Amino acid sequence: MHLRITVALATCGIVALGGLAACAPQHNDETGSEGANAESTQVAFTWSYDSTCAQCHEKEDGSMDDAACLAATHAAEGTTCATCHTDESGLASAHKNATPDEAKKRATKLRSTTIDEAACLSCHGSYEELAAKTADLALLTDSEGTTVNPHAMPENEDHASTDCASCHVMHDSEPAEESAPEYCDSCHHAGVYSCHTCHD
């Protein structure tokens, strides 16, 4: 009888220990199912215009439905990612060996590609046409009362890199009325638009 009780208690003890072990934190090695899933998200993909941009560019994709963003206005007119992002070789290079997890961390701002202004101007007209439309705009007025037409800036080396996207931020809700003066102030930090008045 004592033997049966001892065996029964030993069996219960083993079952209880097994239950406790099952509740303990588990260590996953890379060969486990979770390791396989983590590894699968690290697989590099090959970019093409058929790729789903939203997979990594979640913020930008969301802006296509956000009425506060220019991207939504353009999307309503049928504009897609490929309409503006036409630098195929640059995009292929920028996405080379990219993984979704890595891209979500880095996919925040264009660094190695640009937006071709021809895409903007094909719908909005030439700079001359735009300058005529904004001739009376006083948005860019400096502390000395000098007003600059944003579409007819003085041509010089410093303005050579200024393009449509410098002021018109597609995937952000900040309007050009705010982003344009900020862009100008990034160089004209003294609030004066006349060049060579601060530095030699």
From TrEMBL:
Keywords, sorted A to Z: Electron transport, Heme, Iron, Metal-binding, Signal, Transport
Domain Tetrahaem cytochrome, residue spans: 74-189
Subcellular localization(s) per the UniProt record: Cell envelope
Primary location recorded for the protein, binned into one broad class: other
One cellular-component annotation, GO: cell envelope
PROSITE patterns named in the record: PROKAR_LIPOPROTEIN
Listed name of the protein: Cytochrome c3 family protein
Signal peptide: 1-21
Molecular function as annotated in GO: metal ion binding
